[in-house]
Design goal:
1% helix, 367 residues, 1 helix, globular, four-stranded antiparallel beta sheet
């Protein structure tokens, strides 16, 4: 993380896309992968570019037509694992392809194969989760709320009955001494056994109606959850791996509907119109609430042990994560207009891969 940002954008390269997009960017030191739509808005497009030059490496395109709020572009972030990458489109098309070539290894359609017939106006949003050579996704069928596929060949390993998908992503963590999948379905928080998919516990929210978008965060052996109706809560677990339904800490003022929190030391940071900073050592007491022209409903945060990169509406903010008032140390405008940046960027070394409208830019952050 740099000590300051460049005064003007230092673009190593730029690449034009056929549309804007919502899904996050995946990158390593060789490849950058993201999803968008073709010019006619009939097909999903996943593109891989050379991380050093921005030159195209491969494209995967397939027909995907539906009616969704906020457009048809993919919402999920691709998942790179070894020599493969897992891609999930908003209409439930799941592909495992070779990272270097884009050649399809296996594929499924979650909506048709697992008979999801409910309402999903924002489409499939949760990013694929990879653990123990399994690819775990929320399919949403009555007998297949969560499903796990074998990473190597795509065969179905298990399916877990339950509810429709949430609009957020799952995590893997060890809670109460038990490794488990943790996250939301459409209406509840839950934990599932990694090997079998058996549901271990469920927690109904006090107030109904959360969209369940923000990603849960593991903090030691505890779980941090934040949603728009029920606020921010920290839970502990029983010795059998089930959750204690009464939170050990709670803050009702931080209530994001889209942004996911990050944790630096004993502090929780999250964007919801402001940049919130909560103190984990004092029952999630609010330490700071920073107002800035770049901050709206959503902001992506990348954290080190003393700095935050906050990507807001057309600007990148470098924030001191150690001071109580969380001062903005430096800022960089990456767009001449105030533009929503819903696609989570990727940071590799000092290079930030950032989508702005229908353009992907590789920015060097260090002066």
């Amino acid at each position: 993380m740099p000590d300051s940002l460049t005064a003007e954008p230092n673009a190593i390269w730029k690449a034009s896309l056929s549309s804007n997009g919502l899904g996050g960017i995946a990158a390593n030191d060789r490849y950058v992968i993201l999803g968008y739509r073709d010019f006619d808005d009939f097909q999903d497009v996943f593109q891989c570019l050379d991380a050093r030059t921005g030159n195209p490496v491969w494209n995967l395109e397939y027909l995907a037509v539906d009616t969704l709020d906020y457009g048809l572009s993919t919402r999920a972030t691709p998942s790179i694992v070894d020599d493969k990458v897992i891609l999930l489109g908003a209409m439930g098309d799941l592909h495992c392809v070779q990272l270097a070539t884009g050649k399809i290894i296996w594929k499924h359609n979650l909506k048709s194969e697992f008979k999801f017939d409910g309402e999903l106006p924002w489409g499939y949003c949760g990013s694929p989760l990879i653990t123990e050579d399994k690819v775990i996704v929320q399919a949403g069928g009555t007998d297949a709320s969560l499903v796990a596929f074998d990473l190597s060949d795509g065969t179905l390993v298990w399916k877990s009955p339950g509810l429709a998908p949430s609009y957020g992503s799952l995590i893997i963590g060890s809670f109460g001494g038990r490794k488990q999948i943790v996250g939301h379905d459409a209406t509840t928080l839950g934990g599932w056994d990694v090997a079998t998919g058996k549901r271990l516990w469920r927690l109904e929210p006090v107030i109904e109606g959360d969209f369940n978008v923000p990603t849960p965060v593991q903090i030691g052996d505890k779980l941090l959850i934040t949603t728009e109706n029920n606020g921010t809560r920290l839970y502990q677990f029983q010795e059998d791996g089930t959750i204690d339904p009464q939170p050990v800490m709670e803050n009702r003022k931080l209530r994001p509907d889209m942004s996911s929190p990050v944790v630096v030391g004993n502090r929780v940071f999250c964007v919801n119109r402001f940049l919130f900073c909560l103190d984990l050592s004092e029952d999630l007491r609010e330490l700071a609430r920073v107002r800035d022209e770049a901050l709206g409903d959503y902001g992506a945060i990348i954290a080190s042990d003393n700095r935050l990169l906050v990507v807001g509406d057309g600007q990148i903010l470098l924030v001191d994560a150690t001071s109580n008032d969380c001062p903005v140390l430096s800022r960089l405008a990456f767009s001449e207009e105030k533009i929503d940046a819903f696609s989570h960027p990727a940071l590799v070394g000092d290079r930030l891969f950032l989508r702005s409208g229908a353009e992907l830019t590789c920015l060097q952050l260090s002066p």
